[in-house]
């Protein structure tokens, strides 16, 4: 498994791409719009999404599952986890997303008609502590394998290694720690009379929610 936990992006693009806001709007409506996208993407909570008529609950669920599929693929690829073990990481990935902390504070209209939305967040410390636990666990496994009369088969060894990382993440998530609250902004741009989140800002927010550079 690769030792880097950095630059793992959790994309909400599947929801952002189809959930644009059009027509007359206001600071409150734009604020709620970003809240709806975040809640539907991370928390699997479609309440505001449906209330704002961005789509049905079933559509929100479909978009959430699509985002999870994409996210788990990126997650496993970045960590060097083979596709054969991808499904084993799905629940821990969903649990991790569900624990992100953010608050959509205010939206302010700009002179060009776009909005700047301020978001308060607390960075989750998950990858570094999970990696540390994983390395300790694998070292203990290696010692036990050396002492064994008959070492496990190669496939069993590989599965043990990957499952140790999943277990390490589960352990860290059970008592996960966060940095102090910080703020950043997300632009909601008016493109062809449709309000759309700036994808670069969305990517920066996603990176800010989790430890790693």
Structure description:
The chain has 213 residues and is an alpha+beta fold. The chain has a domain at 13-119 and 181-208. The protein contains eight helices and seven strands. It has a five-stranded antiparallel β-sheet with strand order 1-7-6-3-2. The longest helix is centred in the first third of the chain and has 23 residues, at 57-79.
Mean pLDDT: 84
Beta-strand residue fraction: 15-25%
Tell how many strands the DSSP assignment holds.
7
The shape, in one word, is elongated
Low-confidence blocks of residues:
2-9
Element-level helix/strand string: HEHHHHEEEHHEEEH
Tell me about the biggest sheet? 5 strands, antiparallel
C-alpha end-to-end distance: 19 Å
List the helices and strands and how they pair.
Blueprint: H1 13-16, E1 21-22, H2 27-43, H3 47-51, H4 57-79, H5 90-98, E2 101-109, E3 115-122, E4 124-125, H6 127-147, H7 154-174, E5 177-178, E6 182-191, E7 194-197, H8 199-208
Antiparallel strand pairs: 1-7, 2-3, 3-6, 4-5, 6-7
Helix pairs in contact: 6-7
Explain briefly what this protein structure is.
With about 210 residues, this protein is α+β, with helices and mostly antiparallel strands. It has helices at about 15, 25-45, 45-50, 55-80, 90-100, 125-145, 155-175, 200-210; strands at about 20, 100-110, 115-120, 125, 175-180, 180-190, 195. It is built from 8 helices and 7 strands.
Record keyword descriptors for this entry.
alpha+beta, single chain, 213 residues, five-stranded antiparallel beta sheet, 7 strands
